[in-house]
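quick q for whoever's on today - can somebody do inverse folding on this one?? i tried earlier but teh output was garbage lol. tokens:
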């Protein structure tokens, strides 16, 4: 009996030693948080992603778009709130266009174009109170795989996202399940195809190519609406251009209800915003500004680029100068935040003319000799840009959060933290007309 007890004690002790020394047997084994997706049928998911409803509370305000007497205020990745702005001193909220997985809209002749999870959506808004069901053009806009992740799905904290046999053409991600597993490098490589390494206590991967794990202009009466500098959509004559990461999706909208999908043009860098002056497109991206010629509208061609440090980068252009705001905080990069004025006299060789430091700028716009800059939490700044080498600060609206502006013919629209501001122009100043909260 005593020998049996000793045998069990020896086995137990050996087991404890084995567990404690497991890392010596598998010297680099460690625990990984592995996330796998919960999915739903993509077709049904997309059908439910687009609708027109009564006004709803705003979650996160984004860009704005002006069309006739209406202002469309973006709710990030969810859709657009419709404001009747026939009286700018007292706008009213009249409805909500639900557009999950959306980045932007653009409007021409009562037709609203938008993206939703990589599809092009076409809406007839001739009767804004009775918008009929939208037309959907499947996979018309190039987007990365994550376009099938629902807007209300939070990315979990995980070391690796295991998509398994997920078919992004048939399935949508509606959630995640995270489990912790202990794997050696060999086991990890057998399962996922590359070796993980630990660098300063954090996960990194070898040079096999795998990613580092991470949580992840319009006049009054015009038939085309006007977006701000953060726009990803732009209508020029009979063409709609939509930028998405490293490509331009192009549509012939001569027949407004039946856009023709043309061949994508892949850009020389990643891009976030689009602006046009005449037959040139100016694309803002985290590494620089890229210029494309659209004298042949269906086939934009590369002209040149102006490269800067990594930062968020909207751009507007007036004559021979491009005005580029760079924000280098958070995920945007480490470039010094400020305004870059780029000389475009020679379009093939754009050069930096002048730099002005700013706190944390977002969007910008201009009207005549006035330049409006949304400097984030540092408010709205109004400059006289008559001399680009010596900008004069005319006004500074402090104590407000600012995101983007649209300079209209008679007033300035500005969006901040769930608040739409409207200002009246004066010779050297602005006067606040109204504020409208979408909370």
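ok took a stab at it. sequence:
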């Amino acid at each position: 009996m005593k020998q049996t007890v000793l045998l069990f004690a020896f086995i137990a002790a050996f087991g404890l030693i084995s567990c404690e020394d497991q890392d010596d047997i598998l010297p680099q084994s460690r625990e990984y948080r592995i996330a796998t997706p919960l999915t739903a049928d993509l077709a049904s998911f997309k059908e439910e992603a687009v609708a027109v409803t009564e006004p709803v509370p705003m979650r996160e305000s984004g860009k704005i778009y002006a069309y006739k007497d209406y202002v469309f205020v973006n709710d990030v990745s969810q859709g657009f709130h419709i404001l009747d702005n026939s009286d700018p001193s007292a706008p009213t909220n009249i409805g909500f266009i639900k557009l999950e997985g959306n980045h932007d809209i653009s409007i021409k002749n009562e037709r609203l174009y938008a993206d939703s999870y990589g599809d092009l959506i076409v809406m007839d808004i001739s009767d804004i109170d009775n918008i009929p069901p939208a037309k959907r053009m499947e996979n018309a806009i190039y987007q990365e795989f994550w376009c099938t992740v629902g807007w209300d799905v939070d990315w979990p904290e995980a070391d690796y996202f295991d998509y398994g046999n997920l078919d992004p053409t048939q399935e949508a991600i509606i959630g995640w399940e995270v489990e912790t597993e202990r794997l050696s490098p060999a086991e990890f490589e057998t399962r996922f195809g590359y070796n993980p390494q630990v660098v300063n206590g954090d996960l990194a991967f070898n040079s096999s190519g795998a990613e580092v794990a991470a949580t992840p202009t319009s006049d009054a009466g015009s038939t085309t609406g006007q977006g701000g500098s953060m726009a990803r959509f732009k209508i020029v004559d009979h063409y709609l251009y939509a930028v998405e990461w490293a490509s331009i999706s192009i549509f012939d909208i001569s027949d407004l209800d039946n856009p023709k999908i043309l061949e994508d043009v892949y850009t020389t860098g990643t891009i976030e915003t689009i602006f046009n002056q005449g037959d040139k497109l100016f694309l803002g991206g985290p590494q620089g500004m890229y210029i494309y010629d659209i004298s042949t509208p269906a086939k934009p061609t590369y002209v040149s680029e102006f490269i800067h440090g990594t930062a968020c980068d909207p751009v507007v252009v007036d004559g021979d100068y491009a005005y580029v705001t760079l924000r280098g905080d958070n995920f945007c990069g480490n470039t010094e935040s400020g305004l870059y004025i780029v000389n475009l006299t020679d379009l093939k060789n754009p050069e930096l003319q002048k730099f002005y430091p700013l706190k944390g700028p977002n969007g910008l716009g201009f009207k005549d000799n006035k330049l409006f800059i949304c400097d984030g939490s540092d408010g709205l700044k109004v400059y006289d840009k008559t001399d680009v080498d010596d900008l004069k600060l005319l006004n500074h609206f402090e104590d407000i959060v600012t995101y983007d502006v649209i300079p209209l013919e008679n007033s300035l629209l500005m969006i901040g933290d769930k608040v739409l501001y409207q200002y009246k122009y004066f010779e050297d100043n602005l006067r606040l007309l109204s504020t409208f909260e979408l909370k």
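fwiw The CA atoms of residues 39 and 173 lie 5 Å apart. also Residues 2-20 form the longest helix (19 residues). so keep that in mind when u check it
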